[in-house]
Amino acid sequence: MFNPDINDYQLTSIISECCGGMAVVYSAIYKPLDHSVAIKRYFVDKSKEKATLIQELYVVSPLMEFGSCRDILDRYFRDGLPELACAIILRDVLLALQYLHKQFYIHRSVRASHVLVDINGNVCLSGLRSAASMMVQGRKQKQLHNLPPPDHDNANLLWLSPELLEQNLRGYDEQSDIYSVGMLSCELANGTIPFSEVPTTLMFTEK
């Protein structure tokens, strides 16, 4: 959809910093179509995965003008979104997860800050750097056992399912994302993040 030549883009402003300071998101204009886009620029020297990111210094995506659902909650709906808005957002998140699961991926980071909304009310699920494939050497695994990569403050633990946090031989599968959707539902409806008062050290034992 977008040309990979960086000269075809005009950066206009910084939207936010993300990935624990490892990247910055800019609003930009795709000049061939005069189309607004978002560009995520990675700082390779801050990444432990330099060999991978050196191939993908810039990621271009449609501009989601309203930002994330977390942004919307913090700015306008501190006590939670209206029920209809929650239902519409959750429907689109579930459709996105349905697609990912059919491709044998587990998202592992469903949260309001990873649910983006554009000016027309379209919803996009981001946060895919935490996603994991269930395919190993061409064969689908029944369970996974590894934790997602940590974010800068381990906040992602708040949305993770108990079976994922347990780290035992039973492992976890796509259903762990459905638990996170439940957490997202509470976050959208109430404006607050469940378990936000629980110390990180207790997440693995008490959740």
From TrEMBL:
Stored SMART domains: S_TKc (SM00220)
Record Pfam families: Pkinase
Domain Protein kinase, first and last residues per copy: 1-207
GO molecular function annotations of the record: ATP binding; protein kinase activity; protein serine/threonine kinase activator activity
Gene Ontology terms: biological process: protein export from nucleus
GO cellular component assignments: serine/threonine protein kinase complex
Domain of life according to the entry: Eukaryota
Record-linked PANTHER family: SERINE/THREONINE-PROTEIN KINASE FRAY2, SERINE_THREONINE-PROTEIN KINASE FRAY2
Homology family: Belongs to the protein kinase superfamily. STE Ser/Thr protein kinase family. STE20 subfamily.
Protein name, entry field: Protein kinase domain-containing protein
Origin species: Leptidea sinapis
